[in-house]
Every structure is written in C-alpha cells, then in structure tokens.
C-alpha cells in the first residue's frame, strides 16, 4: 500500500479563540506530542505540527492511520470532553492532493485572518526545521515543503500579492 499525505486543522475559520486555545501546542510540547504520535501509530513516517495563534495543524504521512484517527487522538490528549461536538471544529483530509493544496493555501496566506500574511511562511519553515532536526520529515512531506518554499519564492518575486500586508503574529 502507498503512503498518503494527510492533515487535520483547527483555525480561525472553524473555531473561536477560546476553542483554538484548547488545541494549541506550545513549542515545548511539540516534541513530546510528535514522539507520542509516532510511537502509537507506527505507520506514520513523517509529521509536522504547526501551532500558531490562529491555527493548529498536523500534517503527516501514513499508510493506514487516517486523519480522523489522529484528530480523535489529538482531541483526547488535549482533554476534549465532548469529542462529538469538537469534531466539527476540525477540517481534515486523507487525500494527498487535497493536503498539499491546503498546505500551499496556508503558506501563501490565503487561509490567514489577514489575507497574504507573510508571517505564516516563517512559522512553516520553523515547523519544517523542527521535523528535520527530529528525524520526522518523510519523503512526501519533504516534497510538499519544497513545493511550498518554491511557490512562496515565486509569489514574493513575481507578484504584488503581499504588498501592504501586515501580520497578527
């Protein structure tokens, strides 16, 4: 069976600040979370956790472990009392192409509360570097990240998309 790139996301588009705060993962806790996920789900060959003020997203590659399984596991770890109600706060996909499309939209600032927010690319680079440093960068994730960085460079150099944008970060 083939690996697929998958994601789960909670963001300002799906949840209030209070709801998002429940699922925020601090920089200090990312390593522990990533290790726990990889130990519990041994078919995950790469994982990136992006946690900012406006979103918490988990991108991962696996053969069998689905986005809904990771979403439910994440909600349990964060102490969600009513998983049924909380599931509506998350967007997710088990389709590689949809996951890459979502990641490209996030990295370009199309999913930001301030359209074109340039800070998100720095946050993605930081999450990518963390994954590499902790040997959590799978081949699909790496290709997706290279596409993100290449598209960011083109957007920055060939368009005026980010002219005049600010950041909430």
3D architecture notes:
There is one protein chain. This protein has a single domain (4-158), classed as Glutamyl-tRNA reductase, N-terminal domain (Beta Polymerase, domain 2, 2-Layer Sandwich). It has seven helices and four strands. It has helices at 17-23, 27-40, 67-77, 83-86, 96-108, 119-133, 139-158, and strands at 4-11, 46-51, 55-62, 91-93. The model has no long low-confidence stretch (mean pLDDT 90).
Structural class, from helix and strand content?
Answer: alpha+beta
Gyration radius (Cα, Å) is 15 Å
Count of individual beta strands: 4
**Name given to the CATH architecture:** 2-Layer Sandwich
Tell me about the largest β-sheet: 4 strands, antiparallel
Task: State the CATH superfamily name.
Answer: Glutamyl-tRNA reductase, N-terminal domain
User: CATH top level?
Assistant: Alpha Beta
Low-confidence stretches: none
**Shape estimate:** globular
Q: Examine the coordinates and then state which fold CATH places here, giving the name of the CATH topology.
A: Beta Polymerase, domain 2
How many structural domains in the coordinates?
1
Global mean pLDDT: 90
- Indicate the proportion of strand residues: 5-15%
End-to-end C-alpha gap: 40 Å
The strand order across the widest sheet is: 2-3-1-4
**Could you state the order of secondary-structure elements as H and E?**
EHHEEHHEHHH
Count of discrete alpha- or pi-helical segments spanning 4 or more residues: 7
């Amino acid at each position: 069976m083939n690996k697929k790139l998958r994601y789960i996301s909670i963001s300002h588009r799906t949840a209030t600040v209070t709801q998002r705060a429940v699922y925020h993962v601090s920089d200090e806790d990312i390593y522990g979370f990533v290790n726990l996920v990889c130990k519990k789900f041994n078919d995950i060959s790469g994982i990136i956790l992006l946690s900012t003020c406006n979103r918490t997203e988990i991108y991962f590659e696996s053969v069998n472990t689905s986005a809904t399984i990771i979403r439910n596991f994440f909600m349990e770890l964060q102490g969600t009392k009513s998983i049924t109600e909380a599931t509506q706060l998350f967007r997710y996909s088990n389709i590689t192409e949809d996951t890459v499309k979502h990641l490209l939209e996030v990295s370009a600032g199309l999913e930001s509360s301030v359209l074109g927010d340039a800070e998100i690319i720095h946050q993605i680079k930081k999450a990518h570097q963390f994954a590499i440093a902790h040997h959590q960068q799978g081949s699909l994730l790496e290709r997706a990240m290279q596409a993100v960085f290449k598209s960011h460079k083109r957007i920055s150099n060939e368009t005026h998309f980010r002219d005049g944008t600010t950041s909430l970060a």
